[in-house]
Design brief:
3 domains, Rossmann fold, Glutamine Phosphoribosylpyrophosphate, subunit 1, domain 1, globular, binds 6-O-phosphono-alpha-D-glucopyranose, eight-stranded antiparallel β-sheet
């Protein structure tokens, strides 16, 4: 979490930094700040609790000039969100300033050592300790900034992406990273851009270098980019071309990124399948895992790890792999898996699912699984992300940038890739009949058009939203492969509208949640046609008998549920194992509409962040 940006060149830095911070606000938005060095070598720091727009408004009458600067948008870890704890932070002599994403785990020990040497601190942050440490080393050892940063980072335990600026040397920015992402854009006029992801950079240049862990970059205006690792070995920068386009990270006429991303799903699902699903030839091609097909065939077990929505996609994957490929699957929260000394075998396959590819717990779980000899297959959205790089092999989801904090199109893209993978492995293992395999491939091809049809139900979903927008609680029920969809629907409602919601397997309702049901309780039931359809009908009766309100997601043409439910949302018929790709869409729309009606900040819900790079 936290977004960082930096610029050095001939242009005015402030507008570049502010625009960049706004693009990174999905990473955190407790507070924002910038530091600039003017042409007269004056250092200005503006920082403030609240959103980037508030920082902008508060500084309109200030001198915001300067061709070198750094900016930060914060998701608080150490110290509450307030003006003082906001970044940038300054060193003791106020010459050095820093922005930081990550956590310095040994900050308390470092702080006490520095205090003994006369340093005083004004914030509660770990970041301020780091800039004091850099200054301490720089002054005492007479080092240049880049070397002082290297030396300081050798003492640091934890994760960081930092940019440091020195008032005394307004021609240089120093950036470093470990465990938190950082991209350096190389401009065409000797200028450089730094950011947590490529979105602030793409407007200015397509040439980027992804900094690797424990690398320190020195950026000097008009000079070549210099990178060294913490052992002072020079690294040749590997310049890559960005493939994302500017339009992909803008709202494109929608009120919110979340709505845009919900509506992008026909396209994003198609992109996830592009070149991989060739129904006419009865073929699935997943180039990224070709070298690991033999491992999949031999695997006695698959463990899927992830967090949040990605964990839900993993649960859908469990049903898919077990049903189609007949391989036992366990789905684990990455944060639990990494700390419970899990038993792993060298023939286990671990599939790590992550939109951002930067989630700290998932990354740490991968490292643990690797140490224990398992093979890691990554399913990530962000190309070149840490998880993608840490995996042995994998398949990108190709959903395009997801900016809304509540994940939507990333979920359907993850489920699409998991479905393709399960079908492909099933075929390799001869665990699926030829006719079912072919039928499912043809059916998958129709999914984008069917998602389009589901999106057309939006007016009726808006009506349902207006009826229930003021409830305090909601229950989401599903059975079999729609159970994870119920979990995902509940999560969407919770995270953006702050209504307490729980997802449950429909039959488990009797063991607790049924006690909550009364005439005020909406119960969203996924009651599409499938093996458990009749059972779900009984669960609906149980809710109705207790006067609960039923909002049912049903298969087109269903009359039975219609006769019992208070509201029905129809989705096109499809194979039961592909149905999550359709049934989740109305739940995304329902939570979106409710959140808008409640006046919530849909794209930036309170306390959340898009990319959770702290554990
Ligand atoms: C955060 C986001 C969620 C996301 C989860 C896992 O909580 O708000 O939308 O599902 O992290 O993130 P990942 O990038 O690993 O999928």
């Amino acid at each position: 979490m936290c977004g960082i940006v930096g610029y050095i060149g001939d242009r005015e830095a402030f507008p570049i930094l502010i625009k960049g911070l706004q693009r990174l606000e999905y990473r955190g938005y407790d507070s924002a700040g910038v530091a600039l060095i003017s042409d007269a070598s004056e250092l200005q720091i503006y920082k403030k609790k609240g959103k980037v727009s508030e920082l902008m408004a508060a500084t309109t009458s200030q001198n915001r000039s300067g061709r070198i600067g750094i900016g930060h948008t914060r998701w608080a870890t150490h110290g509450e969100p307030n003006d003082i704890n906001s970044h940038p932070h300054s060193s003791q002599n106020k010459n050095l300033v820093i922005i930081h994403n990550g956590i310095i785990e040994n900050y308390a020990a470092l702080k006490s050592g520095l205090s003994k040497r006369g340093h005083t601190f004004i914030s509660d942050t770990d970041t301020e300790v780091l800039i004091h440490l850099i200054e301490d080393i720089k002054e005492h050892e007479g080092l240049k900034l880049g070397h002082a940063v290297q030396a300081a980072l050798r003492q640091v335990v934890g994760a960081y992406a930092i940019v440091v600026m020195d008032k005394e040397d307004p021609e240089t920015l120093v950036a470093a990273k470990k465990g938190s992402p950082m991209v350096i854009g190389i401009g065409s006029t000797g200028d450089f851009f730094i950011a947590s992801d490529a979105s602030p950079i793409v407007e200015y240049t397509k040439n980027v270098v992804y900094l690797e862990d424990e690398q320190v970059a020195v950026l000097r205006k008009g000079k070549a980019l210099k990178i060294r690792n913490l052992k002072d070995k020079e690294i040749t920068p590997y310049v890559q071309k960005l493939t994302i386009e500017l339009e992909a990270i803008e709202k494109g006429g929608y009120d919110h990124f979340m709505l845009k991303e919900i509506y992008e799903q026909p396209r994003s699902i198609k992109d996830s399948m592009r070149g991989r699903l060739i129904a006419d030839e009865a073929k699935v091609q997943l180039g990224g895992i070709v070298d690991y097909e033999a491992h999949f065939k031999q695997a006695k077990r698959i463990i899927i790890i992830g967090c949040g929505t990605s964990w839900h996609a993993g649960l859908v994957g469990e049903y898919l792999f077990e049903e189609l490929a007949r391989i036992p699957v366990e789905v684990e929260y990455a944060s639990e898996f990494r700390y419970r000394n899990p038993i792993l075998f060298s023939d286990d396959i671990v599939i790590a699912v992550s939109q951002s590819g930067e989630t700290a717990d998932t990354l740490a779980a991968i490292e643990l699984a690797k140490q224990k000899g398992a093979k890691i297959i990554g399913i990530c959205n962000v190309v070149g992300s840490s998880i993608a790089r840490a995996s042995h092999a994998g398949s990108y989801t190709h959903a395009g940038p997801e900016i809304g904090v509540a994940s939507t199109k990333a979920f359907t893209a993850q489920v699409t890739v998991l479905t393709l993978m399960a079908l492909h492995i099933a075929r390799l293992k001869a665990g699926i009949s030829d006719s079912r395999y072919r039928q499912m491939l043809y059916e998958m091809e129709t999914i984008p058009a069917k998602v389009e049809a589901v999106l057309k139900t939006s007016p009726s979903i808006k009506d349902i939203a207006s009826t229930y927008k003021d409830v305090k609680n909601a229950l989401y029920l599903g059975r079999g492969i729609t159970f994870p969809v119920a979990l995902e629907g509940a999560l969407k409602l919770k995270e953006i509208s702050y209504i307490h919601a729980e997802g449950y397997p429909a039959a488990e309702m009797k063991h607790g949640p049924i006690a909550l049901i009364d005439e005020d309780m909406p119960v969203v039931v996924i009651a599409t046609k499938g093996a458990n359809y009749e059972k779900v009908l009984s669960n609906i009766q149980e809710v109705k008998a207790r006067k609960g309100k039923i909002i049912a997601v049903v298969t087109e043409g269903d009359t039975e549920v219609k006769s019992m439910a208070d509201h029905c949302i129809e989705i096109p018929e499809t194979d039961e194992y592909l149905s999550p790709l359709l049934s989740v869409i109305p739940l995304q729309l329902l939570s979106y509409e409710i959140a808008v009606m409640r006046g919530c900040n849909v794209d930036q819900p309170r306390n959340l962040a898009k990319s959770v790079t702290v554990e």
